[in-house]
Amino acid sequence: MKVVSYRKHLPVEDPESLIDAVIERPAPGPRDLLVQVRAISVNPVDTKVRRGAGPGQPSGELKILGWDAAGIVVDVGADVTLFAPGDEVYYAGSLDRPGSYAEFQAVDERIVGKKPATLSFADAAALPLTTITAWEMLFDRFALPTTASTPGTLLIIGGAGGVGSIAIQLAKKLTGLKVIATASRPETVEWCQKLGADAVIDHRQPLGAQVKQIAPAGADYVLALTKTEDHFDEIIEAVAPEAAICLIENLARPVDINKLKPKSLSLHWEFMFARARPQSPKMSEQGSLLNQVAALVDAGQIRSTAVTHLGEINAKNLKRAHALVESGKAMGKVVLEGF
Question: How many angstroms separate the CA atoms of 130 and 153, rounded?
């Protein structure tokens, strides 16, 4: 089967940073689906692992990246109960296994959802990793109820990125929170507004004053999705006492968590791959939430966050995708389709 892979941790400009290759098709394990991958999307974790700045994936061996896919089940393991050959699915996969830059991928059925019937494979592939991340931040880390009566204000720093784009929608459709997103370019401001943000502010300017013009008591919840170390003091200024803050990125430099104490703020970490390991007792919750979001998509409540389609899945196009994601200027999600 065709794959896009790498052997060394290299900058994207290097000809060997991503390479086309042909390897054997995997066989499904007992709880695995073997999926014919029809489309993928690219996330920041892809670029970090390729550069050697992310978790796992030691240099030297042939490695396959990719943690977002939509495709068709072609075979199943002996103990599979949730899917059958011919089912259309979408999923993010696991850091511990070969990724989705491949014609065929083996993936545990418990972290797989049925693809939204109303979406193309490319539009569906934009959703899994960021949807799982945003869902777990809102409904597991913050323990928010999925009810329209949920009070409070949610600040999303980096609203036009992949996680921000789905988090805006989930918060507006499943909670009663007022959503303030940050964006810094006219096109990203417009994107956040289209997704349902109640207000959009500029993260290049002090956040505290901007948030309190909209929510005088301050934000009750913060999704700190990018450059938290740069925004840390302003986040504290922008929030109400006893607010909750959730992070997804490793901090580029230390911050003083003692500053959280005067307002009794809580700090949470989200790492969606934590539940993708078989030893996690909550592994199957990822498949369940993907099915719930697929139902919301098919009901017209949630839209795909795919924005940029870069063509076929090959090393040349994936280098373009990685370069765009690394630039920090990607809006929504970057997708590729077909081999």
Answer: 21
Radius of gyration (Cα) for the chain, nearest Å?
Answer: 20
DSSP code, position 279:
T
Distance separating alpha carbons of residues 171 and 146, to the nearest angstrom: 9
pLDDT tens string 76-105: 999 999 999 999 999 999 999 999 999 999
Asked if residues 41 and 306 have their Cβ atoms less than 8 Å apart, the reply is yes
pLDDT tens for each residue of 252-261: 999 999 999 9
The CATH 3.40.50.720 portion of the chain extends over: 130-270
| Residues 6 or more apart in contact with residue 311 via CB below 8 angstroms | 317, 336, 337
Alpha helices (runs of H) in 175-312, residue ranges in sequence order: 186-195, 207-214, 228-238, 284-298
- Tens-place pLDDT, residues 276-308: 988 899 999 999 999 999 999 999 999 999 999
Q: What is the pLDDT of residues 219-232, one digit of tens each?
A: 999 999 999 999 99
CATH of domain 2-127+276-337: 3.90.180.10
Strand bridging mode 333-337 / 306-309 = parallel
Tell me if 283 sits within 8 A of 111, measured CB to CB.
yes
Helices assigned H by DSSP within the chain:
44-51, 121-125, 128-135, 162-174, 186-195, 207-214, 228-238, 284-298, 315-327
Q: 269 pairs with which residues across the strands?
A: 247
Q: What is the CATH number of domain 130-270?
A: 3.40.50.720
